[in-house]
Each structure stands twice: as structure tokens, then as C-alpha cells.
Amino acid sequence: MFALFSASSASSGRGRSTVRRIAAVTAVTGLVATGALTGAGAAVASDGVSHTGGAVATLAGLKVHDYALLHTPGDKEPFRMAAGLFELTGGGTFKTYCIDLHNPTEDGTKYQETPWDQSVLNKNPEAGKIRWILQNSYPKVDDLAALAEAAKSGPLTEKTAAAGTQVAIWRYSDKADVTAADENAGKLADYLYEKAQNLAEPKPSLKVDPHAVSGKPGSRIGPVTVTTDAPPAAKVGLTLSSEGTVAGVKIVDKAGKPVTTAVNGDKVYFEVPADAPDGRAELTASVTTQVPVGRAFAPQVGTSQTMILAGSSTSEVFASAAVVWAKTGPVPAVTFQENCDKGGVDVTAANKGDAPFTFTLAGKEYTVPAGGSKTVTVPVAEDQPYDITITGPNDFKETFKGVLDCETSGKPVEPKPSSEPTPNSAGGTGTGGGDASTGSTGGSTGTTGAATTTGGGLAATGGSSATPVIAGVAVALVALGGGAVFFLRKKKAAAGE
Question: Helix axis angle, 144-151 relative to 183-195, nearest 10°?
């Protein structure tokens, strides 16, 4: 999900009017991989993409893998592909598995921590079983002898344990008919699949809600609720931007006591002096913690396959919220959030001023009365980038960007392996270089009868791909690697059918 907020305030009197624009201030999906903060409890990277806070990291490759066999109706032979653990880096190290089998991975793709209901796990009734698998297998369980004993599989290596775990996950995330190439990995996959139980979605590493609030000076504005999975001892630090400091704004608790830290569930407010000039400020929340196993990681831009966290190092994560105040006139706080159920993006404008706030969105005009709120859902096609702009009086303008990614890919067409990796086409930093040892099955020991790639190396990420247009239909060259299968696939909604 990409949740950016914006807010502006306008005051009018004797022909005077001012509009103050809320800047996005939040952390790139968990980690500030780029070091850039974005707004509204959402982080905005240097390319203007926003999200809800938490961890943000960049795909660094398929690091531990063996092989799996994908069985597709109508194919004479199963398709052999790499299956295992990816690594993402940025302020920490993140180990992930794929939960979007038929989608490509792209070199250098930036990922952000994402709620299940704003990812391909949306409406998946067995998403909780994937979390159980992650909690009860490699690398969370790093005693491979004990894992093999529980699965009655025979000896496991890190590679076969990772492959078996990935195979079990694909059966739930993509309903795929997939088996492990290695016999012991296959037994592990069967054990995990059969034993899995539905667990609840883990809490985010860090978020603040709402991402923007507004009101009048001389009042306490809020509250903003802090949510984190970090232990109470790892207190969330709260800082105010320089604009707020200059204006004399304070972060306080419900009793009005100034605070600089918070724990899970705390509600904080902005106390704005009565004589403060119209303005805005941002609160940045940060904490050093481990992102909980089972959190989804979605690409910030593009359609690189969605990941799910299997383990991570300790890292600093961020989130933020903005406050806007004005003495008279409309005082809007604007936020947005992807809505997978409605197939679009919810744009919400809350007006805490004493005059109506009129705005234009998607070619239509809307008015929010003083003290009111209005949400407009802007339709967005699955897997399609969006660039939504909301405008208002006195040059008010905010833009929200992202990609709606709520579904796994559709049914595959005939597998056609490719040996040519492609760097990230959505602003990543991949080089597109080949490395047969990390992604290609050419020259590796294989299972008799399984189709494999022939020659050419895959990029070091284990999952680079291109998306050429063939006969007017967009299809993806999907790379061999941890769910990135280097063959032609249709995307369910992206094909424009």
C-alpha cells in the first residue's frame, strides 16, 4: 500500500488568503532505505512514491535456493525453477519468500512493508497459514536436524530447507501445483503444507494513524495513534519538524504533558499556541526493532513479485504524521489509502476549519463542509501505476503515486524460458548482469523430464525480467528465481482483458 497524506490550510479575511501545503513526511516502508522521509504516516522516496511507514528495502538477490517443479495443465513436462530465500537490504537485512509466483522480480526494486489487505494476500483466507509456515520453518527454525526430524524428511541443507519452505508457501499464496525437485525438500513442503494453521496478521513494525490532522491554533489537535510490534523497552522516539518548533508546537499526551517517546497504542496530540501563525508541521516516529515475521513487502513501483518476510536483522524504521492549523477558513487534512476491495484509491479530505473546503479530484468537484469529512474512491486497474492529483483554492495541490497490486497473477500460458535478464524498468538500480550460479538452471543437476533454461545467466538478484508487448498483449518475461520464473506469463488484469 502507498499511503501519502497531504493537507493545506487556508484563511481569508480582508482579501487575505493563505494556503499551506502539507509535505509528505514518513519513512520508506519501514526502513528509510533512501534516507528520505515521506508524509502522512507514509513515506515518500526520492521518486515521489509514498507509503504508510515501516520498513523499506531494496532487492539484493536470491541468496539461498534449490529447485522446484511447476506442473501446468497441458504441459508434457514440469517446468524447473529456482525456489528459495531472497534478500533485501536497506538499513538492515531482510530474508523473504515469494508470494506471487507468476510475477517477475526486477533488479534493484525497492520494497515497502505493506498490510495484507493492501497486497496480493488480500482476500486470501489461508494467508495466516503462510505465516505459520514462516514461524515453523527455515530460517526462523535454523536447527535443520530438528526440522528434518519434525518433517520426517531425511537430511536437509539450507538450500533444500529454503526450497521446501517456498514450495509450501506457493501452494497457499498462488494455489500452485508445485513440488520440490529434491526428495527431502519435498517431504518438508508436504509436512509444512499439511500442518499449517491460520495465524493472525502480525502488527506493523511501526505506523501512525491518521497520517494527517488539522485544527485551529490554541487547541490540542489529534489524536494520532502509534502502533508498533517493537517491545515496550524499545520506545518509539517522537520528534517535531523545525517548522513546529519555531511555532511553539508541542507533542503531548492526552493529559497535555509533553512527550518525546511512545509505546504501542499510545495516543499523542499536537498542542498549538493560540498566537501561532497559520502553518503546518510534521511528527516523525522512529524505533529500532526487528520487523515481525509474516509482514508483506510490496514493490513501491512496478509489478515485481510481492514478498513475505521470513526474518530480519534489527533496523530503524520510521513513520510520520502531519498537523495543519489556521485561525479561520477551511483547514483540510488530506490522506489517501489503497482499497483492494473497491479496486481503487481512497482519497479522504477532513476539514476542521470554519469554512467549506472545495477540491477537484479525477475531473469532479467536491465540497467538504466545516467540521466534515469526505472520502472519494478513484478507480485504478490492477497492476497499473496511478498518479492522482487533488487540487483546491489558492494553488492547493497534492499528488499521490503508486501501483495497485492486490492480486496474484492469473493462469500461465505455455512456459518459454529466457536467458536474458533485464534491469529494473521502474526506477531500480539493477545492472542486469548475468550470474548463472544464482538464477539459471542451465548446467545444474536436474530432474529427468523437467524443462529447464538453456544457457545464459540470470541477474544476481535471481529474478530480473522484461515486459515486452507481443501481438498487442502485455506479457512478462519472468525470471527463474524464488518465484520469479523465466517464462511468459499473463497478468490477470494487466493484460487489459
Answer: 70
Q: What is the pLDDT of residues 283-293, one digit of tens each?
A: 999 999 999 99
> What is the arithmetic mean of pLDDT over 445-474?
33
Which of 243, 328, 275 shows the shortest CA–CA distance to 17?
328
Q: Which has the closest alpha carbon to 130: 331, 358, 368, 307?
A: 307
Q: Return the amino acid letter for 379.
A: P
CA 257 to each of CA 60, 127, 248, 349, 476: distance values in angstroms, whole numbers, following the listed order: 44, 41, 15, 29, 55
pTM across the whole model: 0.75
Q: pLDDT tens digits for 37-88?
A: 222 223 333 344 555 689 999 999 999 999 999 998 888 899 999 999 999 9
Residue 333 is placed in which grid cell?
Answer: 487534512
Instruction: Tell me how far apart the alpha carbons of residues 46 and 216 are, in angstroms, rounded to a whole number.
Output: 32
User: How far apart, in whole angstroms, are the C-alpha atoms of residue 178 and residue 242?
Assistant: 54
Length of the chain: 497
Q: Residue 438: pLDDT above 90?
A: no
Residues 87-144 have pLDDT tens digits of 999 889 999 999 999 888 887 899 999 999 999 999 999 999 999 999 999 999 999 9
- Which residues touch 113 (CB under 8 Å, ≥6 apart)? 29, 30, 52, 53, 54, 55, 56, 204, 205, 291, 295, 296, 297, 317
Task: Look at residue 191 and tell me whether its pLDDT is greater than 90.
Answer: yes
Asked if 381 and 474 count as a contact pair (C-beta separation under 8 A), the reply is: no
Which residues neighbour 363 within 8 Å (Cβ) at sequence distance 6 or greater?
none
Count CB-CB contacts under 10 A for residue 261.
15
Q: How many angstroms separate the CA atoms of 403 and 426, rounded? A: 11
Residues in contact with 411: Cβ distance below 8 Å, sequence separation at least 6, in sequence order = 490
Spatial separation of the C-alpha atoms in residues 454 and 419, rounded to whole Å: 7
pLDDT reading at 496 higher than 70: no
How many Cα atoms occupy the beta-carbon half-sphere of 147 within 13 Å?
Answer: 28
Helix (H, G, I), strand (E, B) or coil at 424: coil
Whose cell is 550470474? That residue is: 435
d(CA 216, CA 170): 51
Distance of CA 209 to CAs 42, 197, 306, Å? 10, 30, 24
Contact between 482 and 82 (Cβ < 8 Å): yes
| Amino acid at the residue 34 | T
| Distance, CA of 225 to CA of 211 (rounded, Å) | 10
Place of cell 507481443: 470
Burial 81-100 (b: 16+ CB within 10 A, else e): bbbbbbbbbbbbbbbbbbbb
User: Taking the CB of residue 14, how many other CB atoms lie within 10 A of it?
Assistant: 5
